[in-house]
Write a structure and sequence with these properties.
With about 100 residues, the chain is an alpha+beta fold. The protein has a single domain, classed as Alpha-Beta Plaits (2-Layer Sandwich), CATH 3.30.70. It is about 40% helix and about 30% strand. The protein is globular. The mean pLDDT is about 95.
Length: about 100
Amino acid sequence: MPKVLFTVSYQVRPDMRETYLSNVRQLRNRLQGEEGRNYTVFQAKGKEHQFSEVIVADSLEDFDAMEDNQDEITRGLLQEIENCMERGTTRYTTMLELE
């Protein structure tokens, strides 16, 4: 089965940067540590408000299950992160590994 690479890129409102960083670090610790997910966040070089979240899932089924199986804490962190984003800047990409 091919792996799935999912990215979501966006700009964070300048006044919400510190709130965003706190929430995204909590989310990263939760997804990597407690759930064992391949998840990380990148900041664009030279652009202090441009970020990309990257998730690599072992299969399409695993990727689909990630959203279906979110607990309240994870959903709350995702909502807080979304509240920090500039409207209209979010771009999603889902890619499948070549076999």
